[in-house]
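ok new one. same drill as before - structure tokens go in, u give me an amino acid for every spot. 118 of them this time. try not to just spam alanines like last time pls lmao
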């Protein structure tokens, strides 16, 4: 993340931490309508791009099934980001409220072209 998108180590670590919480929750909660804001999504993309790490996530948290990432181009502005933070918190993770609130009105949703994608 430091190389590609975020120039501050502390922000990169926070975004990656929330990305892990999001991915685990998404994989263990199939069919639940969740979506991150832009800042957390940067961390999610970084994990997905590190394919050995992402495949390991799928193995452990999705029962070995590959969890597709199929984002829409148009962002949703319907409260999904903060509802997602609540779902992740209910899943047992600590939420970095500042990272979720900064993009609260601008969700990066997933397309339905791939069932149960995130």
């Amino acid at each position: 993340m430091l190389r590609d998108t975020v120039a501050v180590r502390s922000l990169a670590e926070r975004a990656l931490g929330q990305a892990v919480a999001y991915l685990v929750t998404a994989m263990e909660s199939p069919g639940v309508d969740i979506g991150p804001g832009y800042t957390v999504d940067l961390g999610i993309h970084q994990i997905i791009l590190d394919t050995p790490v992402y495949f390991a996530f799928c193995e452990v948290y999705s029962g070995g099934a590959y969890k597709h990432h199929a984002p829409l181009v148009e962002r949703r502005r319907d409260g999904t980001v903060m509802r997602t933070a609540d779902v992740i918190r209910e899943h047992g993770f600590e939420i970095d409220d500042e990272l979720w609130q900064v993009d609260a009105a601008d969700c990066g949703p997933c397309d339905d072209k791939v069932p149960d994608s995130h």
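The CA atoms of residues 73 and 108 lie 8 Å apart. and btw The chain has a mean pLDDT of 85.
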